[in-house]
Request: fold
Amino acid sequence: MDLRPLPAAPVTWEQEADVVIVGAGVAGLSAALEASAGGRRVLLVGKAGLDSGSSPLAQGGLAAVLDPADSAGLHRQDTLSAGAGLCDDAAVAVLVAAAPAEIRWLASLGARFDTGPLGLEGGHSRPRIVHAGGDASGAEVHRALRHAAAARPGVRVCGATVALDALLDEHGAVTGLLAGTLTGRGGELAVGAIRAAAVVLATGGYGQAYATTTNPAGATGDGLALAARAGARLAGLEFMQFHPTVLWQPGGTGQQPLITEALRGAGAVLVDGAGRPVMAGRHPRGDLAPRDVVAAELHRVMAAADPPAAHLWLDATGLGRAELEAHFPTVTAACRAAGIEPSRELIPVAPGAHYACGGISADMTGRTSVAGLYAVGEVAATGVHGANRLASNSLTEAIATGRRLGRLLGTERGPAAAPDPAGPAAPAAGARGAAGAGRARAGAIGAGAGGPLAGAGGPLAGAGGLPAGAAPDRRAGLAAAMSRYAGVLRDRGGLEHLLTLLDAVPPAAALDLATVEATNLHAVSALVTVAALARAESRGCHRRSDAPETAPGPPQRIGLRCRDRRISVSVLDSPSQDPSRTETGVPA
Reply:
């Protein structure tokens, strides 16, 4: 299957920066603060300036070893266990060691953390979750970082702007970013070129590829699709984590409220329609089993009901009104907005797309396989999360990698690509369609992995013979198909049918925000489907009903790359088989 290029559009403006960062969540802001401290001119690009992204929605908190009864070894082991054999041990060790210092750094910036006991969440063997505002941790951390960035003279913000494609030189190295600034309420874009030696992708996930998600409306996989078109190596895209407890509402689609796992840590219990505990006897940790286990069990119980159930229930009534309002104000408000009083009534919940465990292959300083292109936060696959993310590791990882990258960019002048030992990629299993057009011609500035951009004012040309973009009016139907065929439970027949549906999506007529997002979601859906077809086993949050067991032997990592716009796949060795490199194929 091929990735479609964006429709053609003229380039009408230019800017320059030392570092351009796409995304203003905690990963992008952390990188911006450190890079600007090193004297770099930083330009932050985002659809809604500094006030968007998934980071402010994070309820769980930040995982870090701060209790003398805990240890880095236990945090590491919990992370490896949740990751189902596909974590990079070296990357996990970096995260676990860095986590306490990152909490102290945030506090030095003014982040107001709760002073009560550390929290316990699914998959953790010890309480080690630092909270802020009860279940408003992401919002508080983001607030502190946002205010620090706003006060930094070396950080500029380019709001109401969407990243389109990387600008590449004749050697495939990044020389800047092609972006579109919103010019009207209809989503019209003025396309421009931002020249920069380093482009950092901190765009978050792609939950909007599914019918229901905890992700905000802007989480349309823009950074992942951009990196794919630029030829970057990708990994682990079959591992979308479905949060087991998303508030279920009749007819609800798109972003839905998250019901934090910390509620179960405080004593809430998942029950079926008859009030029976769902997780009793299913896992030693019961309701606090890793998220992939809980989501899969909820899916099984819902499907086995007669007729199949649309949701199950979370019983938090035992916590009482005072506890819910004091420690879970976000959840309590969301439930009441939906007409549910959680201190007296059961909360209807169902799994929803939540966190992308895979993404752009990157090391713990954000380097990817493309020189000058970096990735941090949810969009990056560093090997920390493996086949399933341990709760509350994500904010900690985003800050740790963002800061490490910012310090690197503050001292390094020439961008370097991470080594790519995986070698040539082979055609993907299940991929279909003719090969796309060639890479940008020598000497031209490329828009992604194809179409030449002949300097400022030139056209952003689609690849010859390929339909340009994806029609926005098919977005809802594709999201429903993704939830059905590439959701909590998949099989080969459904995934192959999904590829057929993706092939049949008509092209778009013009370049606007709706088309950009629909095209990026089309690309993400294709990449996830190809990766899910290639992994013929069940592991972590990738579950195949036609291959329900985990394959014997050393675990394998599925790597994807787009060359001449065609998606191809390779199988990378497990890190345990080759200690000289990390899971993503870059130096530790």
The chain is about 30% helix and 20% strand.
